[in-house]
Amino acid sequence: MTDQATFQHALRAAQARGDFAEIARLHHTAGDEALQRREPEQATHHFVRALAAYSQIGDVRGVGAMHVRLGNIALQRQQPHIATRHFRRALFAYEEAGHEKGLVGVYVGLGHVAAMQNRIDDARAYYDRALAILRRDLPETHPAVQSVLQHRNHLPSQDEK
């Protein structure tokens, strides 16, 4: 869904049907596309609407996913308190849904917040939690594992704090 007219038409049709799952999907996709275009304000607009629709239908995983995305946008804006709030809400949603793999993004996000706030031990602990989940199913060479390791390994050592 790349053009605005197509999006608006699909959104109006979903709203007319009261199809909150489709409304959530449309806004979720539009938000991801806005992030790819480096338009965080537009992405936030869509993610907030997707979050409302996911909440309406009780899609806890969708709620968690939107909170992770909103937390990441807050991180990019250097808003650690807002990011933390979103990551904690995502943590609650994913725990409620029993969606352990979703927790990886939450722990990485909380690790970034802790690093931003110079809470190095907390950052390391969050990255370690993410790594523990990833390593259950993925080899050490997998890009997801390597990405978290890179963040963890770039933290200052105990001596540098």
From TrEMBL:
Pfam family, one: TPR_12
InterPro entries associated with the record: TPR-like_helical_dom_sf (IPR011990), TPR_rpt (IPR019734)
Stretches of the chain forming a coiled coil according to its record: none
Residue intervals passing through the bilayer: none
Stored PANTHER family: HTH-TYPE TRANSCRIPTIONAL REGULATOR RV0890C-RELATED (PTHR47691:SF3), REGULATOR-RELATED (PTHR47691)
Protein name as annotated: MalT-like TPR region domain-containing protein
Organism for this UniProt entry: Ardenticatena maritima
